[in-house]
Amino acid sequence: MSIHTVISMRNAADGVEKSDAVASNSATQRSFYKSRIPIYPKRVHGVFRRIKWAVMAVLLGIYYLVPWIRWDRGPSAPSQAVLVDLAHERFYFFFIEIWPQEVYYITGLLVLAAVSIFLVSALFGRLWCGYACPQTVWTDLFIHVENLIEGDRSARIRLAAAPWTASKVAKRVSKHAVWLLIAIATGGAWVFYFADAPTLAHDLFTGNATFVAYGAIAALTFTTYSLGGMMREQVCTYMCPWPRIQAAMTDKETLAVTYRSDRGEPRGPHKKGDSWDGRGVCIDCNQCVAACPMGIDIRDGNQLECINCALCIDACDDVMDRIGQPRGLIAYDTDANILRRSAKEPARFHFVRARTVLYSSVLAVVAVVMLFGLATRSTIGLDVLRDRNPNFVTLADGSVRNGYVLKLMNRSIATRSFDLSIDDLKAKSVNVIGIGVVRLPVRLAVDADKVRAVRILVTVAKPDLGSASRDIEFVLTDPKTGERIESEAVFVSGGAP
Amino acid sequence: MSKKEIDSHTGTETTGHEWDGIKELNTPLPRWWLGIFFACIAWAVGYWIVMPAWPGITGYTHGVLNFSQRDQVAADLDALKTARHTREAELAHASLQQIQSNPDLLQFAMAEGRAAFGDNCAACHGSGGQGAHGYPNLNDDVWLWGGKLEDIQHTITVGVRSTSPETRQSAMPAFGRDGILQPAQVDDLTEYVVHLSGRPADARAVARATKLFADNCAMCHGPAGKGDRSMGAPNLTDNDWLYGPERADIHDQIWNGHGGVMPTWGGRLSPETIKSLAVYVHSLGGGE
Question: Once rounded to an integer, what is the mean pLDDT over residues A213-222?
């Protein structure tokens, strides 16, 4: 083998090394009968790498810092801006406080999240997978740590093959130590969303926190460490349902990280001075494969394993600059545009399509309903539970008594007094247990942010009974604000006991 | 098999078994599967050491932790008793009125009363105290022996027609069955009782029975039929009928003189439980 051949095998073009990277995770390459072939993504520099750094910083910042934001709600409620208070059955989000009965807001939020991801997928492809998914963010962080400690792709491959020297042990131990620290911090931040952060932090370090807190940290430490450090692309390829579902959201007009085969093919090595006529601009340097954290070859086309992280775009643009060709051999593009360019038509982007209009309208409707619900959210509530055992009680003088348990809800942060009355019923007497026989409307105080259960016995005289079962209405009003809420019930005076 | 045979197509070792030219591949188990399998074995060995595991002739191995679910239950019950101790002591000393006016104590008594009612009283009085034919409804405002807290407490303690020497005692004679009155007289009295409760009745029968009622019934039920709680005699002028409101029901009661039995709970339930029961029954809606 002559020296010349060796050089031409090592170089795809002058100044551009041909990488020996193999797309080991592409569908044709991987096998269920083989162990995973490790992927050593090469560090790239460029626009999308910078965007990914910025997105990572923002997302990690949100995740780690949000529990520490304070929000004064007065003495009756916790002063943490975002808090899932399981013990007291409340969810706090800045100025919003949600009770378990209002779980439909969470449903609305999930619907919004789902439709948003549909819309974004239809327009720009897998932006979520490429930039925002926790699996992507943490894996990116873990790979960055690996890169800092062990070096770039070729150094890591050499280190993996090297014998266990003291230096290798030191590198590996420090890498796993940093990974574990990140994993512990990840699990540690999670629990702060469920308890007062400063108190819990103190308890965690002094060993006074609950077993549940330590257990949750341990579990999330394990998942972060194993999913981000060990399993990486396998989570997306094998475990995640979204790559399968998203095929239904995208079409030929959807933006995706695309190898422009119309420009690149036929590919092959290029020597300086040779003509570019009659060939594609892809010099088959494999730098896109080397950069890929998913271990695939983008030139095989749009595929399930591709998370659209766009790192191959940066890698390819760098090569294009070096061989003096315009950037964008790999770029955000659509399948339809490749066809158009092949047919000598101008490329164009089609953002307004039936499906994007549909997704946007659903999104708008749900958002408006949610906003309306939140804006008109009542701060008082009334639930009526009628006694069913016995269904009704006939008294000595022939009058009939029904019992009810009323749950009066005060969803504001101050103690309030409500007026309770009953519509559509002529009662002979109303007895509030603990207060005695009262005249309606009766004034009842409810502590801030609490539910008060009141048992009430309503008696109707014999001549006023009417039908065996009649609809009545309990009405609760706040005399100060005029807020009013009704709850329907029945008064039963006959029929099967 | 003397040497390994590798299947050329898959590159996997065969077991050497062959059927009609088809050889069985010896596909190894996935590593993760084997890992979990061995981890389970290791876990099992650890479990034998730590937890009770192996049966013997007269006992079993107790394990390092000496864990026993039986002991756990006993400890839990002890803890429960300790936790209830203070309240139970308060309950013993407090009067019924004090229990009712102290919200914490009332909540405790109501919880205990509800449970005790379900265990001991619901069989006859119904789970909601709604009663049944011959078993009084405890929700309404009709009380044979009184509806004040103390009355209820006393009734529960001594029972009605029970084996207790202090039992509440009353007997409605079987006027017809025992031949005290003639059948025609029982018919007339039935009309009289229907008339007492304000319903239309045969006026001539009522006139005939007026003296009969004064002679035979007024001693217990009172001259106006309003009843007498000191004797457990029901009020005949209201809408509440323990043995049914119809003429046939009333006739049957005068003829046979039914009288139900309520057991004495004095020796069986602790005084605290009886207090709780009294408070609970009083709260059902009819308490006076």
Answer: 94
